[in-house]
Amino acid sequence: MDDLPPPLILDVLSRLGDSADLARCRVASKTFNSLSRDIRSINLHCSFDRYAKSRCPLTRSSITPFKTILKNLVSELRIVESVTIGIDKPLRTVSYDDVEDEDDDLYLTEVNFVGEWLPKVSDGLTSFSISDFWVQSCWRRSEVLSLISSYCHKLAELQIRNAWLSVDGLKPMPKLSKLTLEYIRLDDEDLNKVNESFPGLQVLNLIGVGGLKDPKIHLLQLKACRWTVSNAVYSVTIVAPNLVKLKLKCVRPRALVIETPSLADLHLSVEEASSFKVEEFVNLTNLHLESLDLRRLLCSLPFGKTVKNLKLGLTKSSELMGVSKFGFESLFSVFPNVSSLTFTPWAWSVFEMYICPEGDEIRSRMKGLKEITAYLEIHDFETTLSCIFSILDNCSNLFEMKLFIHRDVVFHVTSTLISRCMTRHPRVIWRWGMWKEGTEDAWILDGVL
Amino acid sequence: MLYAIFGVQTFLQRDLELRNLSLFNRRKGFSYLFQKSLLFPFSISFFLSQGFIYLFLLSSRKSSSPAAIMSSSSPKMITLQSSDGETFEVEEAVAMESRTIKHMIEDDCANSSIPIPNVTSNTLTKVIEYCKKHVEAKSDEEGLKSFDAEFMKIDKDTLYDLLMASNYLDIKSLLDLGCQTVADKIKGKNPEEIRKEFGIKNDFTPEEEEEIRKESPWVFD
Question: Which of A36, A131, A264, B97 has the fewest CB atoms inside 10 Å of its own CB, making it the most exposed?
Fold first, then answer.
């Protein structure tokens, strides 16, 4: 390894992904030591071990404080392009009730702390990520966003997790193209400040962001968005003319407004909404829909005739009784161009109640369907079987069926289903598997269950 | 050309004759002149069209030779020669995975075999195997991933030789793969283990090493 030219060694060292590994490499040889100063990224995570030792009176004095380590690292490197600091996974699960922690040694979004080293690296910084310690950060409001916007003019990617953020003093950051906020309490009720200060955003991820009332995303350059909204909001609005991929999960908003005409990939999960306002999708190819009342959603929203891959699911399994019935042929009148259809767990049961009537008109509508994937529960064997057969009879081009049967179904029922399906339609490619909530899906290989 | 000159001559002659005509014959003379004057532009256009036809033939002849090469169906083979004299014949597309070789081909230096002085035949065999797979299965992401994982199950010396070769030959994907594999091997090891794994000599004096350790005490907490 000594023979490798320095640029190659630098390449290897920059892929280490953890500043602790890099620090150990520095001790290994002089070459490593001198090259390590040219590494441009800092990756520092506080392990559970370190946290425990710093709390234990015996070892407390020998542990270097996390914040000091970071400040030292910043001063060692020449140019810093990426900073990723946070706490390890086990620490994230520590609940506020378990630990009484008035300290701030792991309060990473603290403005005083960040202000000590951020100006030194802000010239070259393009990517910044903080995963804060919820126990110490949830009750302290941080103005770190304002600080970041004042100094980091080249920042392109920003990620903050587990913090309480204020948007006071937030200045525009036109170069920011990717923003991820996870488990944040954001003091920007309608997301106005976010829309205003980050006009160049192309990717936006808001997962578990609280403190919103009538949030509206209005970003002209946005291409991909992932948004998980809690039930506390009144309305949900997205206006993004260039948006291509959207994953939106809400519970029961009073109003849902989606104006994204260029959308190609949509994953929408909404239990119920009092009012919808959705602009027609002209480019939509992939649609994954989850709702309590699939029929209402499918009938009232203009998903467009361009959908090729359709995936349907229910948000809750126990409320099947109240769901309106919706048959296969109605599905195809809404989506005439579907070629791949998937039913996630419990959704199949809604559809199998309505057997398709036979007929040439039905057959011509379902001509485009090529493959079906479904998760079956088999409440009534004959219903399931006749539904499968009627679909196969109506869809002349259907050539692949991937069916997962619930693990709790009795063995002989499963094997009867499999053998009857395969004998009745031998030309179809059948793939059988098992599923159960909480466990991974498994394929049945050639009769081995 | 001669025809044109003749046309001009007759035109001039007629002109002279006409000047001697009496006033009575003048009308007839004009129509006669008009007929003769048609000859002049006609000859010029005839000459010009000849010229165009000639130029067209010339250009089509020129373009026919590269067209002939492009329409050939068999793939062009490139010969590579390792440092220990062994030769390898590979398809041009496979060889072009290496930017170094690609530039050589584009600059037209690749007519006979290309010598690769820094790479032994064993390493070159592996490199060619990698490039071939990545050209063949370009769209199969999953398959390539599992191939890469298997491909990297090699001993340290081969790994370093591959790194050097892919660096010299400028094959980015192989270089990335190799560097990441080495980095993954360093992760989690303490300095002694790192030195042992990679056969690095410890060129620090005990005092110097102590100094370095003191700079990052947190790692050894």
Answer: A264
Question: Residue A214 forms beta bridges with which residues?
Answer: none
Provide the domain limits for residue A28: 1-39
Tokens of A53: 């030792």
Secondary structure (DSSP) of A172-237: P-TT--EEEEEEEEES-TTSHHHHHH-TT-SEEEEEEEES-SS-EEE-TT--EEEEE--TT-SEEE
**Residue A311 contacts by C-beta under 8 Å, 6 or more apart in sequence?**
A286, A287, A288, A289, A341, A342, A343, A344
What six digits make up the tokens of B13? 């002659």
Is residue A268 packed enough to be buried (19+ CB in 10 Å), middle (13-18) or exposed (0-12)?
buried
Q: Phi then psi for A100, rounded to 5 degrees?
A: -100, 105
- Angstroms from A41 CA to nearest CA on chain B: 15
B187 — contact with chain A (CB < 8 Å)? yes
Of B190, B204, B221, nearest to A63 by CB-CB distance is B221
> Nearest CA of chain B to the CA of A391: how many Å?
32
Bridge pairing between strands B114-115 and B77-81: parallel
Domain assignment present for residue A139? The answer is no
User: Other CB atoms closer than 10 Å to residue A280's CB: what's the count?
Assistant: 11
pLDDT of residue B96: 87
Contact residues for A150 (Cβ-Cβ < 8 A; gap 6+): A169, A171
Which DSSP category does A142 fall into?
A: B
**CA–CA distance, A305 with A286 (Å, rounded to integer):** 11
DSSP labels, B49-64: HHHHHHHHHHHHHHHH
* Residues 6+ positions from B84 with CB-CB distance below 8 Å: B120, B121
From chain A, pick out residues whose CB is under 8 angstroms from the CB of B204.
27, 29-30
The separation between CA A281 and the C-alpha centre of its own chain, rounded to angstroms, equals 22
C-alpha span between A42 and A40 (Å, rounded)? 7
d(CA A136, CA A133) in angstroms, rounded, equals 6
ipTM of the shown complex? 0.71
- Taking the complete model, does pTM exceed 0.80, yes or no? no
Q: Which residue of A has its CA nearest to B201?
A: A29
pLDDT of residue B200: 82
Residue A71 Cα, gap to closest chain B Cα (Å): 12
The one-letter amino acid code at A421 reads C
Residue A216 counted as domain residue: no
Indicate the average pLDDT of chain B. 76
The burial class, CB within 10 Å (0-12 / 13-18 / 19+), for B132 is middle
Question: Which tokens sit at A388?
Answer: 């499968």
What per-residue confidence (pLDDT) applies to B22?
Answer: 47
In angstroms, what is the C-alpha Rg of chain A? 27
Residues from chain A contacting residue B219 (CB–CB below 8 Å) = 20, 23-24
pLDDT at A394 over 60: yes
User: What is the C-alpha to C-alpha distance for residues B197 and A409, in angstroms, rounded to an integer?
Assistant: 52
Between the alpha carbon of residue B122 and those of residues B126, B129, B149, B166, the distances in Å are: 7, 11, 19, 14
A317-343 residue pLDDT tens: 555 544 556 677 778 888 888 889 998
Touching check for B163 and chain A: CB below 8 Å?
yes
Radius of gyration of chain B (CA): 39
In a domain, A115, yes or no: no
Angle at A102 between CA A97 and CA A104, to 5 degrees: 120
- pLDDT at position B33 over 60: no
Q: How many CB atoms lie within 10 A of CB B36?
A: 15
Q: Look at chain A and report how many structural domains it folds into.
A: 1
Structure tokens at A283: 């480019």
